[in-house]
């Protein structure tokens, strides 16, 4: 069995689209934190496309992992010259396969923090990009302020040499760049967060202000934080993905990635040290990302949240199963048309309802095999960003909130930790204990779950939302999820 490597690229079957550019000519211009599945199917793919056109050979990526799980990623990719296969799964069962060559390295910071700092401080590095998940920024979800309220960030704030988080490592590198007269760079978040550049700015400058106020003032002038919107469904790699490449094409790839055909990237043109010409490969470079990100967060990410708890409680285990359930789909279309779309800012040439139906069609792709547990995980980081802004906007305008309230009620029922057959539900969330404790009170204190101000703000004080939420929770708990879902969908807007 041949191994994927630089040496084997020219001998891969013609059905695998391998890079033909000279990878020895690549030079790093980007340091990326979080070389996970999404980064490899999205940002790295766009850069690879530029390189296939003979462009941006000095914009290759040096990856960095900070979590224990990232050590395995580093080892797998290093064994194959940091190449990997991206398999695009079409709804009809066909597949397109290409090898991505834009990743130069995948380091692991706990074993070489000095090397990571020097890489960021290198004059060739002009962008630090991030996919560190919604909960990785240490930002208060209600106020938007940096709190550093996580064990890794707190450890870095307390340490003389902060080596644990991207914030600490970047801070050290910025000190070196300042002292060496190199100037700043751009920190580019690619996470699914509304105003992710603004969030990044608050996190990095907030961290710097707590550690080194003088350096924070320098960073404020020298570092830019563009907002962006990114979209592509990218499930976790499983053994079947590796077996497919071995069986079909006769080569071993230790860390392939799969994705849906759709991909989108909208990026604010705010770079202080240059950028690759991403517009040449389909990235929308715009002055204001907000209308696009609201569309994506509320229609795509919000739809994910709207389907996952009902879907799981109904016995489905994959996104495509849940979204093709007629009762779930009816709920989703009401969410899109009646509650989410009215909160969006117009975008020239974009029909929001049609976009929402494109989302439903994408999520119904049976080839992706995206588990509902992935969407149900870390809800306390997701619902406040994807769904609750819809509620807030609708309450302010006097619009309906009944579907959103029902989704929150389904989350509360899910957080009870057992399904309708009494089988345990593994609730995966950074606030697991407090969420489950509140959910255990659903029967005798039906508003307990939504009284956590750090998650829900003042929604528990909104009579309209509380009425809709309590009624949905009552229907779910007394009549069963299927019957409740049908009653909620059939009810007038509220």
TrEMBL record:
Catalytic activity: D-mannitol 1-phosphate + NAD(+) = beta-D-fructose 6-phosphate + NADH + H(+)
MF term (GO), any: mannitol-1-phosphate 5-dehydrogenase activity
Enzyme class: oxidoreductase
Mannitol dehydrogenase C-terminal domain: residues covered: 288-474
Coiled coil location: none
Family affiliation: Belongs to the mannitol dehydrogenase family.
Protein name, as recorded: Mannitol-1-phosphate 5-dehydrogenase
């Amino acid at each position: 069995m041949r191994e994927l490597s630089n040496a084997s690229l020219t001998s891969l079957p013609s059905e695998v689209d391998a890079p033909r550019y000279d990878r020895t000519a690549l030079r790093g211009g980007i340091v990326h934190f979080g070389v996970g599945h999404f980064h490899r199917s999205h940002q790295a793919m766009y850069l690879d496309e530029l390189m296939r056109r003979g462009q941006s050979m000095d914009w290759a990526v040096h990856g960095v992992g900070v979590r224990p799980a990232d050590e395995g990623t580093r080892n797998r990719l290093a064994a194959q010259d940091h190449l990997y296969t991206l398999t695009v799964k079409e709804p009809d069962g066909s597949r397109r396969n290409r090898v991505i060559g834009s990743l130069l390295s995948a380091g692991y910071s706990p074993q070489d923090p000095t090397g990571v700092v020097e890489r960021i401080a290198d004059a060739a590095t002009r962008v630090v990009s991030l996919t560190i998940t919604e909960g990785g920024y240490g930002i208060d979800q209600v106020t938007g302020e940096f709190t550093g309220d996580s064990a890794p960030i707190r450890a870095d704030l307390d340490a003389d040499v902060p080596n644990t988080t991207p914030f600490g490592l970047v801070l050290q590198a910025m000190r070196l760049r300042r002292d060496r007269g190199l100037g700043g760079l751009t920190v580019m978040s690619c996470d699914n967060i509304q105003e992710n550049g603004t969030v990044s700015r608050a996190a990095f400058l907030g961290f710097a202000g707590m550690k080194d106020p003088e350096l924070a003032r320098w960073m404020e002038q020298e570092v830019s934080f563009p907002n962006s919107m990114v979209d592509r469904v990218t499930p976790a790699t499983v053994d079947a993905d590796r077996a497919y490449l071995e069986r079909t094409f006769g080569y071993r790839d230790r860390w392939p990635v799969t994705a849906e055909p759709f991909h989108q990237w909208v990026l604010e043109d705010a770079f202080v040290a240059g950028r690759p010409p991403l517009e040449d490969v389909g990235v929308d470079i715009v002055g204001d990302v907000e209308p696009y990100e609201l569309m994506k967060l509320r229609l795509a990410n919000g739809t994910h949240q709207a389907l996952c708890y009902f879907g799981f409680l109904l016995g489905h285990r994959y996104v495509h199963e849940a979204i093709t359930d007629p009762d779930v789909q009816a709920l989703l279309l009401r969410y899109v048309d009646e509650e989410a779309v009215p909160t969006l800012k117009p975008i020239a040439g974009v029909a929001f309802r049609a976009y929402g139906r494109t989302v439903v069609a994408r999520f119904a792709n049976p080839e992706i095999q995206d588990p509902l547990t992935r969407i149900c995980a870390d809800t306390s980081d997701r619902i406040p960003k994807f769904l609750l802004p819809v509620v807030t906007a609708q309450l302010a305008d006097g619009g309906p909130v009944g579907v959103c309230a029902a989704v929150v009620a389904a989350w509360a029922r899910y957080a009870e930790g057992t399904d309708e057959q009494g089988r345990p539900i593994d609730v995966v969330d950074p606030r697991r204990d407090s969420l489950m404790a509140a959910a255990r009170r659903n029967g005798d204190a039906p508003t307990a779950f939504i009284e956590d101000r750090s998650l829900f703000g003042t929604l528990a004080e909104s009579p309209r939302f509380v009425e809709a939420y309590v009624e949905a929770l009552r229907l779910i708990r007394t009549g069963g999820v299927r019957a409740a879902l049908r009653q909620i969908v059939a009810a007038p807007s509220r």
